[in-house]
Structure prediction request, 625 residues.
Amino acid sequence: MVKDRNWYLVPYVVFIVLFVVLPIVLIVYYSFFDIHGDFTFENYIKFFTPVYLKMALSSFWYAFLITAFSLLIAYPTAYFLTKLKYKQLWLLLIIVPSWINLLLKAYAFIGIFGTYGFANAMLETFGIGRQQLLFTDFSFIFVSVYIFIPFMILPIYNALDKLNPSLVDASKDLGASNWTTFSHVIFPLTLDGVKSGCQVVFIPALSLFMLTRLIAGNRVITLGTAVEQHFLVTQNWGMGSTIAVFLIIIMVFIMVISGSRKRGIKL
Amino acid sequence: MRKLVQAFVTVFVISFLLIFIVNRLNAAEGYAGNNTITVYNWGEYIDPDLIDQFEEETGIKVIYETFDSNEAMMVKIDQGGTAYDIAVPSEYAIERMKENDALIPLDHSKLPNLKNIDERFLDLAFDPGNEYSVPYFWGTVGIVYNPTMLEEGRTFTSWDDLWAPDLKNQILLVDGAREVIGFGLNSLHYSLNDTNKDHLQEAKDKLVKLQPNIKAIVGDEIKMLMVNEDAPIGVVWSGDAADMMWENENLDYAVPEEGSNLWFDNMVIPKTAKNVDGAHKFINFMLDAEVAAQNADYVGYSTPNKAAMELLPEETVTDERFYPSPELTDKLEVYENLGPDMLNYYNELYLEFKMHAK
Prediction:
């Protein structure tokens, strides 16, 4: 009987091996070769030079900012969504923009943030005058947050929606203020949603590359930019893979420290 | 759930029906299954009317695909997923493709129109005797600028003009390691193909000093940004400059006198070709004087086709910005293939230069 059931696992195992294990093994394998195809540790030594360390640090910093701002906006949004009458409809409206191609959205923002774009026209009518918006940290983080925010709202919304309202009532009946109810009851019980939201935003934000050129005009350099350049321009697949290995290590690390311990919600 | 399945099935059925109808229509027009060629070209780099004309004249159906960098194109041809019959790489990419055995030699007897090409552009170092390639367009790298946004009388006769302290946050650069390091080298009167690491380091240090003046380093969007007057100065390829000037009449273009890059895009037949005969027909068609003239008029790049130049308006071919005088042409250099080690070094420096953004 048990043997029979193992057969159901075959497609799953094949999928995991082909599309998860094998690519990672290949990346690790390539990272030990230089451009001439000779075995070397040099790529790893090179990663620990100031150029790449600075790049890693700046990727980390921007990914952190993007995640923080997304969370700051997403949590209240998700909270109010659960209070609305047609919440499924509102949720749909938030998800729909994420179906539009990323590149298309980026190009739209070039138009909006341009010197003679919509945003500057608005600033001018309010008497603030034209500002340089495109190619600044502000526009980079703004557009990234815009793109990632549905992925932050969804898990938080799910966690909030599943929250048993009688717990909130109980907290209030026992004399807790609104803030205490939030910080001691609501937030801890939705922490799993927050964590998975942060993972889903932080990890792709770490290796963003299209936006760094289109919106930030290469004023922001992330590890993703370097990977792209090494694979497409220099054809130095070894160095590109080495950076990818570090990205994977950082991601695993993040998954571990933010791993959910399966508490709360299970009522 | 059932509705979802129904919707999916409907979409599939309709798609198949459409594919079937398109196939039938093509067959009715005489496009047999094998009689196609796949052309792999840069974006916005051909007059689409010419493709129709070629299809009508020869009965060969053209499948047209585009790429945006030589490197991306080479990777795709190496992988061999699609049977490209024509590709249009730049000169240094041709050297690399030759080394990798990725090209099929041309049969000159099938290309009678090759005689239309200006001798200056034949038999060049990257492909002696034009064994593998025929020039498609050529041009330079220079500075496009918007005099209405700058103080009156400002010109760009030297690369050093970019370093002027009053140009803070005004310059857009095209995102290419060889272009950027290249003008850094040129501004120091070194060769574009310099492999002396001290010279390269010196060029990088000089470029880092340019950072305060740089607004952004971008790709193809540079055209849109310059046309919309988002910045007054851009370092671009001459063809892109021609496009921009077509859309915004305020713009002007200059090739600095220290010298610059002279580049060629060339038609080749990659190893992936399935219809070599059709590919020759296509190359020969594009070399026809009238076709080349119409194409040059549409694309706006400089044509190497002497016969076509006679058909182009006088003001186009005498415009020294795009058909530079022999004195300047002598100072222009074609990129040499510097080998993977040097290319890697260029890119490392370029990455370091980019890192100095703040």
Summary: Confidence is low (pLDDT under 50) at residues 263-267 of chain A. The interface with chain B takes residues 35-36, 51, 54-55, 107, 110, 114-116, 132, 134-135, 213-214, 216-221, 225-226, 229-230, 232-236 of chain A (CB under 8 Å).
